[in-house]
Amino acid sequence: MKSQKIMWLVSIMLVLSVFLAACGSDKKENANPGKEGEKGKDAVKDEQVLHLVESAEIPSVDSSIADDAVGFNVLNNVMEGLYRLDKDSLPVPAMADGEPEISEDGLTYTFKIRDAQWSNGTPVTANDFVYAWQRALNPDTASPYGPTFMAGMVKNATEIGEGKAELADLGIKAEDDKTLVIELVREVPYFLSLMSFGTFLPLNQEFVESQGEKYASTSDAMIYNGPFSLSDWDGTGSWKYMKNEKYWDADTVKLDEIVVDVVKETGTGVKLYEQNKVDRITLSAEYAMQYAKDPNVVKETETAVFYFKLNQERKGKATPLANADIRKAIARAFNKDELAESVLANGSIAANFLVAKDFTFDPDGKDFRDYSKDYAVYNAEEAKEHWKKGLEALGTDKLELEMLGGDTENAKKQQEWFKSELERNLEGLTINLKEVPFSVRLDLDDAGDYDIQSAGWGPDFQDPISFIELFVTDSPQNNMSYSNKEYDKLVEDTKTTLADDPTARFDAFAKAEKILLEDDAAVVPTYQRGRMVLMNSKVKGLVTHPFGGDYSYKWTYIDSSK
User: Fold this and answer.
1) What does pTM read for this prediction?
2) N or C: the chain end with fewer CB closer than 10 Å?
């Protein structure tokens, strides 16, 4: 495993950043893929079919709309942007034909588009990026990321959002089919890393518009320019990936087919693994302990952080969580170490922070966590004091709150433990669990229809802002009526006045994190996720990424020779 700090030094040269690695990371390959082109050729002796499971259905694979881990993982394998993350999770040219030409002021990027085709044989052109970006910014699309990422970054994006400019004015132009010019309003040190993110993937306008509302509703209502094509997906349930023979780098892709089944219970998944019906399964706590010494267990440290979102207003009315003491009581009323070590028992760690550990570093290789502190640390006595004050302010001696969470086996186990801990330490509290499928939870989150939500976030690119910007006022992910002007200003400063001062920038993020977690207790961190998975030893070269799409199957192959 390569050091994060070494990867940072490599990536800074790649992206020509003044102060921050655009995308350096801790590589996590689950098996040694060997030298590309050598082991891969040997591997064709085996049937190149991989069998996987997912714990949730696909909410959406429309790149303008997707906003969840499952959707982004699918997009990472069936689509390709200007850049993609390589086996070291470094950004490398993909649809871009080599590195871009960057203006002296760092505001204009000129990309050449490589010779590539969509799965229907249509050429991929610069216009496909222009259309996709304009579509993501169009209010009618209701993209969760387009306005967030482009506003204040791409020329005229803010003005378009305010109705002061037209979509055609957006700072992305196709000079010809092979030349794409992007104009920024500020230097963005993580820009090339961002170019691998799902929202910025190309879309073929003629095909998308021919499908109308059906686009991306099934695997047949899409075309693909990535290593695989989506297949056998009717908009619900399981799916397949098939090798995309028209992919520009198809010779690198060894797998012919990937079969993905939706399995929500770990026990069912383990049984399928033991029956050789699936090649990889993520283990919940009891199975993690049972298989801890199995030679086929793979341990993965992730950068995803989980937390409670505390909704201060629901259906137009203030909730009890609008009271700061109630929020601070909940933040301190459960033992996170016990959660990580006994309930999860899969390598996850207690989180008293929002920005993940071992995720992002300053130019000297200093982890962002060294700039900040631990907040909302478990302390039952402090929790009870805040609880008492909060109840007195509300004029009651008891509260009933709903906790929204997932319906998978792992999610249910966690939520039952949260309920037990909170009710045990906060007298008079009743937690009603609402456990729903992932897509339903996303809909309820969008509507702000919950009290407490058990949620999580995997970063989109390697910078603290990928976490911190989630909770600025009116962010699409801030569906909990939270707003703090000082917090908003600190985040804005990191993009403007502090953009070229890495130390001051990290200090600003640290101050913002304290406001969010300690002063306001708007969000309550719970754990940073780790994974223990059982994986068939014949699976080689399956690459995991610490941000963006979780997995890349481009380099994966089957080899049972050892």
Assistant:
1) 0.75
2) C
